[in-house]
Amino acid sequence: MTELNIPKTQRGLICDEVGSALKVREIPVPEPGPDELLVKIHFSGVCHSDMHIWLGEVPIKFPSPPAVGGHEGSGVVVKIGENVTNFKVGDRAGVKWINGTCLNCDKCKLGFEESCASTLTTGGTRNGTFQEYALIKASEAPHIPDNVDMAKVAPVLCAGLTVYRALKDTNVRAGQIVAITGAGGGLGSMAIQYAKAMGMRVLALDIGPEKEKHCKKLGAEFFVDPTVEANVVEKVLTLTKGGPHGVVHIATSEKPLEDAFKYVRTRGTIVIVSLPKDATLVTDIFSLVLRVITIKGSYVGSRADMDEAIDFFARGLIDIPIEIYALEDIPKVYDRLHKGDIRGRIVIDLSK
Ligand SMILES: [Zn+2]
Ligand SMILES: [Zn+2]
């Protein structure tokens, strides 16, 4: 086991129970198990899911208190367990939502580790990246290339991975059209860029002229504002000459999904990423069958997807505006997330 000069305690943003006040406290630095990495976190993105987990709004297990959230951490490996062979101390590594899997079940064997029934999750079943030192199984940690910006790569570890995999799940090929609902937000902005980088043509849906300017600047070919168009479905069908080949649903309301079902091209695929609370899906089965429409969920991504998503970023194809905050500012960040006034992504600086 190799180690640097690691302190015994560290600063972490602690939550004592679901929805309780979040306070920065001194907590022990965890010890890596035989197949784990201890990563000195430099930056951590703040994901919507962190807020929902903290508020108990999603059916996800809350870490046992004192709980630490956060699952978009970029940093440097400072200690490795005795069985680790794919990382050494000093390597840059990511700490993402899927923190460990069994690697032996049928899902894991097929490369769908994110669907493994025995996953460990960062800021879910174990403490996350809103602390200075975090653990991850070496098998689940992505390498972060030396040339990339450590602050900007943090959101790629969840937001980037999620939209990249969702785009793959649409089966839209280069030259075909993908529609993205909620395209002007943090996830949507990344989705537009990944789609472009994958050779897809993009139809962005969002509200307001500012979002239109933003989406088009990122590479959207078409923009539709559902609050302006009298008939959204007709408009999309006309612009795309028969409907987009796939849809990635990122908006948190259900209406855009109903529209998508009507405008998606026959034999097209709708991929749902967003998790509106208590939402259900009712579809017209007759159209579903006769138009051979696929509706599916997409949940983060595999280890291979993670490496690919980081590679697109490292090649300079993905950029996301970030705002940098301190650890104690996370409650303020949640306020802003709640109000929906964040354009890109908030990243917490833990490097000092
Ligand atoms: Zn996330
Ligand atoms: Zn498994």
Shape: globular
CATH class of the largest domain: Alpha Beta
Q: Which homologous superfamily in CATH is the superfamily of the largest domain?
A: Medium-chain alcohol dehydrogenases, catalytic domain
Counting structural domains, the number is 2
The span between the termini is 25 Å
Hetero compounds = zinc ion
What share of residues is helical?
25-40%
Q: Which structural class fits the helix and strand makeup? A: alpha/beta
Number of strands: 16
Radius of gyration: 20 Å
What is the count of DSSP helices, taking H or I runs of 4+ residues? 11
- Uncertain residue ranges: none
Calculate the mean pLDDT score and round it: 94
CATH architecture of the largest domain: Alpha-Beta Complex
EC number: 1.1.1.1
GO molecular function: alcohol dehydrogenase (NAD+) activity; zinc ion binding
Protein name: alcohol dehydrogenase
InterPro entries: ADH-like_C (IPR013149), ADH-like_N (IPR013154), ADH_Zn_CS (IPR002328), ER (IPR020843), GroES-like_sf (IPR011032), NAD(P)-bd_dom_sf (IPR036291)
Description:
With 352 residues, this protein is of the alpha/beta class. Helices cover 26% and strands 22% of the residues. Strands 3, 4, 5, 8, 15 and 16 form a 6-stranded mixed beta sheet that branches. It has a 6-stranded parallel beta sheet with strand order 11-10-9-12-13-14, sandwiched between helices. A two-stranded antiparallel sheet has the order 1-2. Helix 8 links the parallel strand 12 and strand 13 (269-272). The structure holds zinc ion (ZN) (2 copies). One zinc ion binds at residues 101-102, 104-105, 107-108, 116, 118. This is alcohol dehydrogenase.
